[in-house]
User: What shape does this take?
Amino acid sequence: MYIELKNIDKSYGDFKASDNVNFEIEKGRLVALLGPSGSGKTTILRMIAGLERPDSGEIIIDGKVVNDIPASERGIGFVFQSYALFRYMTVFDNIAFGLKVRKMNKAAIKERVTELIKLIGLEGFENRYPSQLSGGQRQRVAFARALAPNPQVLLLDEPFAAIDAKVRQELRRWLKDMIHKLGVTGIFVTHDQDEAIEVSDEIIVTNKGRVEQIGAPIDIYRKPATAFTSAFFGVTSELADYKSFKSFDEVDEYDRAIVRPEFVKITKKSEVQKYKSSAVEGRVETVEFRGNSIEITVSCNGSRFSARRSLDDPAVEVGETVDVFIYRIFITRGDSVKLLTNNALREETVVI
Assistant: This one.
């Protein structure tokens, strides 16, 4: 493994920012640290960078324990959320800054900066100042400056937070392609699940200073390992009493019953409901356009939760009575989670 954290603890007074954190990252992978505010993800990033020191445990990069190695000697590039560009320097000089500090000769600096400007697609912008660039362009310059010394590790602290939605989408794809092209090991902090899913090869979910789960985005989404991950990942709602919905196995003791919109099928009374005998009636509370789908909030058996319908489906109105079928439910008890599948899905005979 290229980066390893072993038994890392870090506290600020009575606040436990990192609680026995352990994980490994392979070389050339792009990994997201995902969690709510205060979950410890930025502290982990700063400790890897050398900007914070763990109270105990080891940080290992390329087989070497780096706890006592200064940040400037770790071979790490860091991209801040706020770009942190020098406003009085041109694009060229911002990218060249770290190379000049290292006293690289002028010819080598020019060659490296020119190479990076081409990489980030800003040829012709060398003499512009940050104030003359868009947010996306400024972030690309920040990426290039971090990459200039040819680091083997690139750390990014919420790199897309200050950029508008359309540019953010473009930069996400660009960053992923760039990381894989260069073979750099990348770690970025985010609280945006869509961002983590779209950009990363692997996600590390953090909560209250602990690592909850590590895995590929699709694996964490489909198979949450802890109660926290099942509720945090995706758009979730809680059922007041899941046993009031038909055709599920009963669990004697549980804490929460959680559903996601994709677990729910809503049909109008005039439509065919494939699993009619296992559906229950609900009342539509809200109908909202979401761009590529319609999001419906429905109240049913004392619970309120969301589902989605295609734009091509017949319109559903607020106050309308509909049929509601739930495919799956996450059941949590303590820190564990179990996926229940509606037994109607296993039946060979479909009831119309």
Notes: The longest strand covers residues 15-25.
